[in-house]
Predict the 3D structure of the following.
Amino acid sequence: MKQFTKIIPLISCVIFLCYACEHKTSTIDEKSSTLFNKIAPNESGIYFANNIDVDVNTMYNVLAHKYYYRGAGVAVGDINNDGLQDVFFTSNSGANTLYLNKGSLKFQNISSTSGIIKTGWSTGVVMTDINNDGYLDIYVCQAGPEKGLKRKNLLYLNNKDLTFTESAASFGLDDPGISRSASFFDYDKDGDLDCFVINESIYTRASEQFIKEKIKDKANLLKCSSRLYKNNGNNTFIDVTEETGVLNYGNGLTVAVSDINQDGWMDIYLTNDFTTPDFLYINQKNGTFEEQIKSYTKNISWASMGTDIADINNDGLQDIFTVEMASKDHFMNKTLMPSMNVELYNYLVYNKEYQIQNKFNSLQLNNGNNTFSNITGVSNLLSSEWSWSTLIADFDNDGHKDIFITNGFRKYYTDNDTQIELKKIKRQNNGRFPKELRQDFYNKIPEIPSKNLAFKNNGNLLFDDVSKEWGLNDATYSNGIAYCDLDNDGDLDLLINNIDETAFLYENTSKNNFLKVKLNSSKQIIGTKLTLFYNNQKQFIEYTPNKGYLSSVDRELLFGLQNNNKVDSLEVIWPNNKRTLITNIQVNKTLNVKPDKNDKIWNYNNTKNQKTILREKKEIASLFKHKENVFNDFDLEVLLPYKQSTLGPLMSKADLNNDQLDDFYIGGAANQEGKLFIQNKNGTFRSISGPWGSLHKKNEDLGSLFFDADNDGDLDLYVISGGNEFKEGNPLLTDRLYLNDGNLKFSYSNTFLPNMKHNGYKLMNIDIDNDGDQDLFIGGRLVQNKYPKIPESYILINDGKGTFNDASKKWLGKNQELGLINDIIVKDLNNDGKQDLIVTGEFMGIHAFLNNGNSLFNATETYFKNVPKGWWLSLTEADIDNDGDFDIIAGNLGLNSKYSASRKKPFEIVFDDFDNNGSNDLIITKEYNGKKVPLRGKECSSEQMPFIRDKYPQYKDFANATLQDIIGKSNYENASKQYAESFESVLLINNNDTFTIQKLPIIAQSFPIHDVLATDIDFNGYIDLILVGNITNTEVETPKLDAGNGMLLKGMKDGTFKHIGNKQSGILIPGESRSILQMKTTNQKSLFIVSQNDKSIQGYVLND
């Protein structure tokens, strides 16, 4: 490689070297159609394979040792400082191997001469300069069936002559646990590298109760905990696990370190397999850590495997991606993994107070305020097979970090049918597994090579599967992976450690521009933060070597620049908080960056004290806390997607006493009275009593409305009664009308309303007969325990004195069963002086009904013809485009769930009493190989419909069955069906009697939108939106739809909306929000109040 030196002007007067990169130097055919080319072993010299021996009569097999096929890692780094990155592979039962990079992707095996002596079962590997002598050392973790000395971790000190000396014991790093990987970083900021070793539990097949008892003994707990070792500064380490607060039971697999909360101190993210949740250890800056996974996240993966931390959306914040074992394939999903155990789930969440865990991958988007939102579904990353490692890096050099995932399990011992057969054999042999049966049984365990996956980052939180296009979809059993520019041509090549197959080397053939950065310092550099600024864009990288699973990457950092040929500046924040700024940077070069004596201290508080747009008015929370009554909808409807008994609380507002201040009513749950709050002149609120508390506390309040029912000049209150916990016909399902006497005293009579024992949700006043008084439309929402059967909606005609009659048949006719109504708008759509109706709901389109003076007729084809059926939750009117008419913001389920819907492949629910036992059976379907199949698994489906268990004793038979096979063709054809074609939330722009669709930003698709407040928050003449929502009461196999924390979308001049993050907006509403109100207060200022299910209300004001 040709070398030249150039002096670059620096603000901090830093001198560095630039190395020319011949772009490209590949010997591969330049006509290659894929981004990566796999280099054959006879070209590269890399013949390593993690071949694993099997003996079914010992512990050396997966049935005897669960962790047998967890694979091994790979580390890359320049061990001889020649500018070429060398490679170390760990092997489970074979020999570890060290390759010297000879250039041009040629490697020499120097294991036999380097002193890399292998004992035991090696797993993870890290290259790091542990003694700060300028040369990389190698730390190897040990696990497997081995015990005693063979399980102790190894440390190979670099002798600077291509040889190494094993020194773990003398350094105090010969950890004896079941170690998976390790991370070196400076946790106490004393300038040297400390060591965190991730260990698995010694109890592999134990019950929760057994473990609980065992770990009461601290000696046992230490054997089941990861360890933290403090560097004493003299080439020795001391175990500080307990005193630093990281002594915890776990089944650790991967560790990633990062400054998660941006305070300049490194934190620890630890993935745990099985029931133990991941740990997030936040550095307390005093030598201790505090586990805070529940306060930073809302839900995580169940069996977390590999993880990586990086900035996926170039906002300067570190995001977290963790992979699980969730298959994308229907057959594998139904056969290879058991369903979620509901009893165990509830025990872990409610008894042990663990974080909520889902059997899916997790992409945690950093909100910048010490909270994360799991956006895996909206990013197209929910499932990826039995995954092990993940790396986040810019593989195509386009400026956006992509994702690569390794997959495969050598023997699927978790296969449900295999487990059933194994239990049968043991049952027939008094709990034994006879040796003569083992080999034949072992040979029958499924072996399914899996393709690795590459996802291209499109720059908008969406990732596309480009595995095939990039040439990375080889099917095998892959585990550890590392990226590195092995040929110094300015892109990231890949190395993968496979089980029972030669390791993969992929050459990257990207032609995009780049910038490489090499960090050089006499002090440790792990945790260094780099921000690159160019063309009104920025990229952020935090240097940490251990990545993905069992592996580590080199200290050279690469920024992809696509076709940008100029870089404005590079900001480097070193671990000692010194800041270096570099300018006038050329692309397609390597910057050799060093600290300078004139560097200034970076103050991390600079970014934390920024003024927010809104601030929380915390005293509002004390006014009301919704307390959801206990009821388990899933006892009667096992396959229900989410609870129908937790739809509150809803709110309504009005100025009840004509003091120019808004008052509000908030509904209570069953056995909790609603509250009416009157605003005082000083901005505080007082509650007043009424019959909603004295008479109707047992009712569950849903929608409410203030309107003048009896034409006496004051506002009365209507409250809908609902709740899935009540049976059809229950008197507690009776709606209520409270008449105001003008002095804020309300009376109730059951003669005001017709006898309707229904389950509604929202209502609106409408003078439908144009007689000057207010009639009502009440949307039906639910038929008790028969979701998603369509209930009746109602038109109630006012006699002018506050008594209402049911005129639904006259006005609605055959349209009385409109759908599962979630929201309503009353508007004169055709400007004929009569009020019309717009409604929507679950499995509906958005429907328009015009008022002809005698009835409402369906005019949907005229106004909303192109609006697809959806899981619509809310409608909000506003003049979005400032053209003088009303537009609509339509909130939908969003795209962040395991469900999908399109016009070509609609989401469908089929329901009927399929087993003739008198209860409603609903089946959520999906399309697989062109046929409808059940989305849920055999176990839960059998619980709802027991005949399935008898009809399909084997899981593979159920997995191969279509829905018509399961319930019968005639039953399918005669069953009721509901479907949706889109889950996207949208704007509907009014264009002279027709509405066109404009999608909300992709970040707004990350949660269900229950309500929207449309207002000009910053008084610039453009409507802004505050979105609230979430659905938290899903069944246990469906991840909670709770990525929302309240969202501010700022209206732009061109009619689009810009997302303002929670850190800048000041909004943090983490619960299941149902309503948001803009309240007029003193001095014409606004107060924003948000209701949340089973939580206190929240209030926000402008942060003047």
In short: The longest strand covers residues 836-844. The mean pLDDT is 94. Residues 416-428 form the longest helix (13 residues). DSSP finds 19 helices and 76 strands in the chain.
